[in-house]
Amino acid sequence: MSKQVMQRLLFGIPMGITIGLLWSLGISYYFGTTYQPSTPAFMAQFTDSLNALSCSVLLWAGMGVVFSLGSLIFEQERWSLARQTALNFGITYVGFSSLAIVARWFPINLVWLLLYTGLFGLFYLVIWLVQYLAMRRLVAAMNRRLNQ
């Protein structure tokens, strides 16, 4: 396993678990005072909450892996930005969506799938635009320094 992949895993796994845990705490506080690591449909699959939490931690770690390894696509310097973006979107959408379905975050029907896809695409676009504009500003600043 390459050093780059290992570094991404060492970052992505704890980041996914942390985000998942914070999200689940926020949702639990919002909907009541009892902690639930995931939806009632997900919780119903387990005999106790410890098993549900353990499975949730594995799913959150998987989500972190999907996004951290997916970002390696943007390091393929010979590929166009459009190709990098399309591949990254496809990989993260399929990987994250699969894990979200296993976590039972939404029912599997056309309406929910379309809503989820729209929201995923919107969030992806916003994050991509913020990153793109930040990098564009950084490159412009570097070019100004080089021209001085």
Automatic annotation (TrEMBL):
Keywords, in A-Z order: Membrane, Transmembrane, Transmembrane helix
InterPro entries per record: DUF3021
Sequence intervals crossing the membrane: 9-31, 51-74, 86-106, 112-135
One matching Pfam family: DUF3021
Keyword Transcription applies: no
Keyword field contains Membrane: yes
UniProt protein name: DUF3021 domain-containing protein
